[in-house]
Sequence to fold (270 residues):
Amino acid sequence: MTQTSTPAVEKVWTLIQITDTHLMDQPELTFANMNPEQSFLDVVKDIKQRFPQIDAVIHTGDLAQVAAESTYQRYLQFMQDWQVPHYQIPGNHDDNLAIFPFHNNKNEAHAIHFGSWTLILLNSAVKGRVDGWVEQKQLEQLEQLLLEHQQQHVIVACHHHPFAMQSHWIDQHRLKNSEALKDVIARHSNVKMVLFGHVHQDSENEWQGVRYLSTPSTSVQFKPLSENFALDQAQPGYRVLLLKENGEYETYINRVRLTQPKINTEISGY
Ligand SMILES: [Zn+2]
Ligand SMILES: [Zn+2]
Fold:
């Protein structure tokens, strides 16, 4: 075999999206027979095994079931022990922004860079409401960031779903000004995708060349296409994003088999 010079290996950025951990204020508490802390740890264990080298973890909200400082501190401790860069945006359950662990302690649109890729995080949570809204100020900041980073490949993330899931009860809780958000995004051809959580299920839509992707919760799953509230026995999961410098990328969901018993789907509300 002839020796050839090794081509420079192109950097591929590995980002992991986790969402809707719904950690309880006591680690041993369960919901619908599910211990969300244990399932979160099972998901993290799977990520660590499959992806020992990652560039960041993005949490798209509903970090805590009830906003409690001790819950956020436990989460931050897990992440610090993991030693990966981590960014989180609030969900409707994170109803106290004063204690929410924004990575820069600011409730505003902000950009994080990974080589030729830029991730823009938005807060779509509104105090006292289950549905979402991105404030005008943040839409303007988003527009500004997109103008500043026209040469970058962009991912936008928020908690609430800008697309209907065809599930009546979940769609009542969608991002209510999704048209305004989608209009801003549609003006910038470098936006590749919009990531969100909140719907506790995997989904994919496309509009004006932009992919809109949801990701399963690390805890309980909602039954797809259900008219009324219903849980699903689908396993928890996370999203993998493999981003190449030239703008090509791959994204997919991994599901994780849990060490705990099946959830109780007879429960009637969340
Ligand atoms: Zn949730
Ligand atoms: Zn939510």
Remarks:
- The longest helix spans residues 36-50.
- The chain has a mean pLDDT of 93.
